[in-house]
Amino acid sequence: MQSALDVTLRGCEELLPRAEWVAKLQRSHRTGQPLRIKLGLDPTAPDIHLGHTVVLNKLRQLQDLGHTVIFLIGDFTSMIGDPSGRNTTRPPLTAEQIKANAETYYRQASLVLDPARTEIRYNSEWSDPLGARGLIALASRYTVARMMERDDFTNRFKAGTPISVHEFLYPLMQGYDSVALQSDLELGGTDQKFNLLMGRHLQQEYGQEPQCILTMPLLVGLDGVEKMSKSKGNYIGISEPANAMYAKLLSISDTLMWTYYTLLSFRSEADIAALKAEVEAGRNPKDAKVLLAKEITARFHGAAAADAAEQDFQNRARGGVPDVLPEVSLSGAPLGISALLRQAGLVASGGEGQRLIEQNGVRIDGTTISDKALRVEAGTYVVQVGKRKFARVTLVA
């Protein structure tokens, strides 16, 4: 029993109420009946990044204890838009956007979860049939005063920022998911605490045993400051190429590395503590970072790809060219260097290309380019931007 509780608590922010969870674990152990553990994700983007896998890792740990994991895709709630952490109304997604994003979510989550032991559900299953009458009945089970206790709403109300009525429906519908699924435990990030507690409240309203809630920290992104987010550009996507994933993991700070170990690694806490002690005793922290980068890269791409990514990184660090380069064909020779960089996908804009040239960050066939007005003649070239971006560009007239 203690080991099951230790697995639950590893890296978690809060477990509420702990006594109720212990009682659920004891009952499950005594009866052999697995507990129902739920994670809901709204398919608001087409890909999952490592920040999402913090809760997925916890699900996998609990799954390995023999419990039933429910991976809930919020196709209905996505059409409302989660107000969590927002100071403005979140634009709802269209049904087409939701469908396109949901198609990749479970496939990517299955790289962490065991698909054979995962129950996949969509909350439109019970939310659509609820109808207007059912929605009104559901809304009667919570007060506006309690809803306004939520920080997002309180702050926006005080600031005079509009709050749409439909935003009140989001936590209600997420809470109703727990009723429909009869969940024993719901996981989420720390920003989801209000919504998770709503599930407990509504289960009690509907005469069910209330779920416990477990919140996980929000993973800090590559910048070491903000939470990992695609919009902030500080993320590592789990479908990124192995070489890019490995290099990004090596770029995190020596301090942040230990948080990543706790929240992302499948190593035991004892192993991590021993590794940390070695580093504190003088071992190069890069050794530990390499082990982490290889573990995470291997999880999503396989051990061979992780080994190849390590070799590729070492080659680049020595100033070498990767064995495999993206092949790009362009026309319009002679072509201005900024336009070439942009059309080859090596920079986002001509302005960025100009800045990189000024910083001596652009090379063609190993030669640093300093002339921002350079026009590149027809031919095939290895073009390098910064330390990690390469392309073999074939330019024709």
TrEMBL record:
Motif stretch ('KMSKS' region): 227-231
Localization (cell): Cytoplasm
GO molecular function annotations of the record: ATP binding; RNA binding; tyrosine-tRNA ligase activity
GO biological process: tyrosyl-tRNA aminoacylation
PANTHER family xref list: TYROSINE--TRNA LIGASE (PTHR11766:SF1), TYROSYL-TRNA SYNTHETASE (PTHR11766)
Family: Belongs to the class-I aminoacyl-tRNA synthetase family. TyrS type 2 subfamily.
Protein name, per record: Tyrosine--tRNA ligase
Organism: Sphaerotilus montanus
